Amino acid sequence: MHAAHRLKVFFNSIKGKIFTLFLVAFLAACGLTLLNVWTLAAVRERLHLSERYDDLSSAILEARRFEKNLLIYGGVESRREGMLYLDQANAAFADLAEDIGRVSGSRGLEDFRQTLDQYRREFAALDAAKDGGKDLARTTGKRLVDMAEELIATKRARIHKTIFEVSLLPFAYLGIFLVFMAILIRVIATSLLTPLSMIGDITARVAKGDFSPVDGGGHHIEEVAGLLEALNRMALELTANQEDLLQARKIAALGTLTAGIAHEINNPINNIALSAESLLEVHGDALDDDAREIAGDILAQADRAGEIVRNLLDFSRTEKAQFSPLAPELIIKSSVALLKNQIMISGLAIHLDVPHDLGQVAGNLRHLQQVFLNLLLNAVQATPPGGTIEVAGRDASDFVCLSVRDSGKGIDPEHLPHIFEPFFTTKEVGKGTGLGLAVTYSLIKRHSGRIEVESEPGQGTAFFVYLPKAAKNQTVSGQSDHDS
């Protein structure tokens, strides 16, 4: 079955079709060559038979000549010579009997034999002194000569026909060559030129930014089908990479902008916070309740503004982090420990299922803790009391997949494409900056990983973080955000 499949694949390929075409042409050439050899052999055989017919005719004519001498001059010598030539005619007839039967049929063969035997008897009975039997011998002899000449004429006609057929063989060769070339050109056109033109159009579309898959129409040429499949796979990967690149460019541009803004407003915020703290510490007793409440609000909002600035600085951070092999179990447990109290206060249950034998990932512990802190914090905020958060790990070929799944309200489908964009948030005003997932996306990209999300309204949300495995006994350096 496997061999049959391989043969089918081979004959559906370009090399298979060309091989088949050349094999057919070779077999046709061999057939024509064998036909040519057979025809030449037939011509030689017929020429040889023609010579024997000439011998038969010559022997009969010589016997007729001695018949004339015998009738005019008489003599034993003429009778003896004539009988010798008739013996030669009999011998030639015996050699040609089978061919005469093919040429004249069984009746013609029998007529010739009877006529030859009759002439032999009549020749032997001739007597120059007697008139009886002379006319009969002349008539039989003439009839025998006519029959021999008729056989020779038929045989020569057949020889000429065979020679004509042989002369057509070069034209047959030429016809086969022309047919072969026409089929070869068609095979090249359908198997190579048309697909190459299609591929040229595809690459032109890709160059213009059109990465839509191409319908190969179930192309039956193996190489072309494989090439179209590879082009479609490349187009899909380019689409995905282009989306990632656009997202990275957005983050890089916003990072540059937010870094400048954060540095500019950090000092005024610090001054506001220090002034509010000093006011409460120095003049707190002199302030009435409303004033102390206002000062406390100022300090709280300054702390909130400071947190936003810190998020902006994390988002715009470009320094290269040192990566090292890390155990996924360590990353998850250390991240969960930082939010353990908040999870308990929120009335949530958390389940960990991260096998210790997943291998190590290449990463920066602080950055990866930030990633999972952001994901866990989002899960805590999205899940009502009594809900659950599940953190799991599994092997994914060259990656380790770490997932965070909650039983919260989920994300609307129209929001999913935008959740990693900076400043996009579905939380209420004042409860989020929209930078958490953008920072998470940026940090994962620095680790040459990827993040995926699945969510349905009312069914909760799951984030899947894919981190590349670290080489054994090897420490690696990370990439900056703007390098990714």
Description:
- The chain has helices at 2-11, 14-72, 76-124, 134-207, 222-283, 289-315, 328-345, 365-382, 436-446; strands at 324-326, 349-353, 361-363, 388-396, 399-406, 450-456, 460-468.
- The protein has three domains: 2-188, Four Helix Bundle (Hemerythrin (Met), subunit A) (Up-down Bundle); 246-316; 320-483, Histidine kinase-like ATPase, C-terminal domain (Heat Shock Protein 90, 2-Layer Sandwich).
- The protein is an alpha+beta fold and 484 residues long.
- It contains nine helices and seven strands; from the N terminus they run ααααααβαββαββαββ.
- The strands form two sheets. The protein has a five-stranded mixed sheet with strand order 2-4-5-7-6. The protein has a two-stranded antiparallel ribbon with strand order 1-3.
Features:
single chain, about 475 residues, alpha+beta, Four Helix Bundle (Hemerythrin (Met), subunit A), Heat Shock Protein 90, 3 domains, five-stranded mixed beta sheet, two-stranded antiparallel ribbon, 9 helices, 7 strands, about 10% strand, rod-shaped
